[in-house]
Predict the structure.
Amino acid sequence: MTAQIIDGKQIAGTLKDKIAAAITERSHAGLPVPGLATVLVGNDPPSQIYIKNKIRTCQELGIHSFSHTFPEETTQAALEELVLALNDDPLVHGILIQLPLPPHLDTFRLLSRINPQKDVDGIHPINAGLLSRKEGTPWFIPCTPAGILYLIQTVTPDISGLEAVVIGRSAIVGMPTAQLLCRHDATVTICHSKTRQLPDICRRGDIVVAAVGKSHLVKAAWIKPGAIVIDVGINRTPDLADPRGYHITGDTDFEAIRQTAKAITPVPGGVGPMTIAMLMQNTLTAAIRI
Ligand code: NAD
């Protein structure tokens, strides 16, 4: 079997077209333009690229973006003050704090200051808690997990009863992805750095989501023939032939796995574009609710 390549770039493009059309319709109806505030602290090069892409996509879709950039040594108090001001700003419907923050900052405390109704990254403890309860309705589902589910459902709309293996348990990707798949009635196993027999557990998965940050960790022999494989990893692999000095690789051995899997996402061009599209969708949703 040669796997279907799940083209996240194209799927995200279609979704973004719909979002742009909805925003145009809103503006013709005299309704407010959605507004997204982004907060970037420090000089982490990947974070700078992610924020740039998010702001550019806002511009393409007609969303107002309000960019707040701070030096590495910014204090917790200054950032909390900003978040409280953004909570009160009627032009700002969504607030995104780019992670990771510098180590001297208390990330959990800062994220907890965001109004959950403007928490378009779905990471406020209230939204995270609501996601973990099947009867709960979070204001927002985190963008990367929402994008992952969307991509899986382009292949298999109903994942009820399927075995899903999520590798990684971070607050922003692994854990909410596992919870989201569980809410859709998949039987979910969460793996992490202390998991034993990872290859054996992976081989059970009808769906395998790799969100680790280790280039080519997941091998073809770990994948059940016919599985759906979602590669979330973004790893900078040194490459002197590339003008940047590196190229981007995922967490899976893509070329080998595509020989046996049913479907697989490429890196780049898989989950990454969907994360941004979902952020735009959540920002539009936030504006519609107000
Ligand atoms: P993280 O470092 O917070 O979490 C990594 C997780 O992997 C941890 O739960 C850890 O226990 C687990 N882990 C580490 N080594 C392992 C091993 N050998 N076996 C099994 N599990 C192991 O990272 P994160 O923020 O969750 O991001 C994961 C990857 O996804 C990174 O490459 C990141 O750049 C990428 N990412 C991509 C997008 C996107 O839009 N495509 C969004 C967010 C993160």
Q: What stands out?
A: The first strand starts at residue 4 and ends at 5. The mean pLDDT is 97. Residues 42 and 72 are 4 Å apart (CA to CA).
